[in-house]
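protien #1 (seq + structre)
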Amino acid sequence: MLNQFSRTELLFGKEAMERLEQSRVAIFGVGGVGGYVAEALVRSGIGAIDLIDDDKVCLTNLNRQIIATRKTVGQYKADVMRERILEINPDCKVKVYKCFYLPENKDEFDFTKYSYVVDAVDTVTAKIQLVMQSQECGTPIISSMGAGNKLNPAEFEVSDIYKTSVCPLAKVMRRELKKRGVKKLKVVYSKEKPIRPIEDMAISCRTNCICPPGAQHKCTERRDIPGSTAFVPSVVGLIIASEVIKDLTANTGRRTDQQ
């Protein structure tokens, strides 16, 4: 029967689409990368999506985040993404957690219920805990490495964390995961050397933070304010989404034939 996912089914097949509809994906971080992950997953037919983010849309998010518009500034990102998902597919089951994932609140999340976990957060402590909890529960996870201060989206690739190079965040993750005995981790990263942002306080959030009232994490609290573009985090998010879909449909006949 013709439906909103018919064009996708022409490539994947019915069995794969049924698998996607039965899948539940958790997206930690609904910003420049995570927002595009969610966008692609709901348009691909994922049946349930958990959104975890405590941040609100800021004016400076309009240059790169799919949920950021003048209308949504000041609203919780997870709430805005939920509304967008339901406008695309009203049947998608969306659960929102307006919090920042850390070791202290990890028990609020049952990773055994997830078909896949997407790490789109930008703090090392949270990323490490996501990896550890996912592997303890046997849940597949994919992590985004550094997307800020990059200009070439064509440089991003899928790799194992221990095969990465150049990326400063990947270097830290390699070291910390090795300490913890983690043998492998699928990541999306770039070998492009990060560009040092222009040091102009007139256009920096460092001294001119305009985060909406009630925002949990102010720019003035951050060690560094990265530059970003419309075309880098979006590509990273779409690459991550494609890997999630590929892995979830890996054993479904026609989709497997296309690998």
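ok now protien #2
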Amino acid sequence: MSVIIKEVTTKKELWKWVKFPNKLYKTNEFFVPFLGIDEFATFSADQNPAYEFCETKLLLAYRDGKIVGRIAGLINHAYNKKWGKNALRFTRFDFIDDYEVSSRLFGEIEAWGRQRGFEEIMGPIGFTDLDHEGMLVEGFDELNMSITFYNHPYYLEHMERLGLVKDIDWIEFRIQVPEKPDAKIERIANRIMEKNGYQVVLYNDRKVLQKEAYEAFEVIDVAFSKLYGTVPLTPGVVKSMIDQYIPLVELDYICSVKDKDGKIIAFGALMPSIAKALKRSNGKLFPLGLYRLMRALKGKNDTLEMLFVGVEPEYQSQGVPAIIMNALVRNLIKNGVRFCETGPMLETNKNVHSMWGTFEKRQHRRRRCYIKKLEAEEQV
């Protein structure tokens, strides 16, 4: 039976769209599901403030009454305005290993883009740089992170057949936490702080962190502003991130650096890995999902995921990243953390790569953003 494509228009259909990957990867030991209620909120215009500058079109593919694929087309007006582009994005592109399915889904989004006058399509990439991005092209036999996509290797062949080509890659490292702080880095960090009057802030009060997080996100916004695909973080997006993460983060793994006037110039946030907890609960909070998540976040956990480290551009070459890393490493060692997994880092971002120069590490995953030119529709 041929493939039927349906647009998602109801909450019931959105839940089916959200849950499809859990069924597709049911027997895959490396797939980590998203938390279902978070993903539902991400694609609900009344819950995600990014819809202030974005539009989406969500599709499901059916065969014999069963869902066999999904995709989201995404128009990011803020991205196009900032970078002077005329691009359509796609994200959450999942499908069985059947080219009829993938081509029908992608073809519908391409047609939508051409109708709207777009010149190219890029992805997988989401609403902002804080959303999931990049298709896995290396590291299929590694347990995925909670903040990234997982996909089957056969996706890559489908991308090629669909006419998509590499635009840029992100790489990820699994870093081994040392048994003791690096004396050289510690000396450098202390010397820089003494010379410039910088202060390290390690938070022990969640209310203080919540208040200062708004200023910290201003630093993140500026620090990331020149990176691929980024858009300005609106107050609504920032508030949403703060409301989502502040109640969950372990304070030992949050750090900022302030200048002599008390202004935040750098900010770093790591989080205990919830990948195994999400996998065991299949992305559900109940009946045991919430307990498992809180146990992973608050109990003993030897692996952390790096959410972000941002340094004001004018301070990036002045050793400030060393101050952040030195402060956080001390707490990692104290709490028995053995590994830290970086989020996706652009392969071209040598500044952030250099932060891990003295650590024992291995690059264990690579992700790709694809791009394709869209030909204008022929006029009849």
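The two ends are 31 Å apart (CA to CA).
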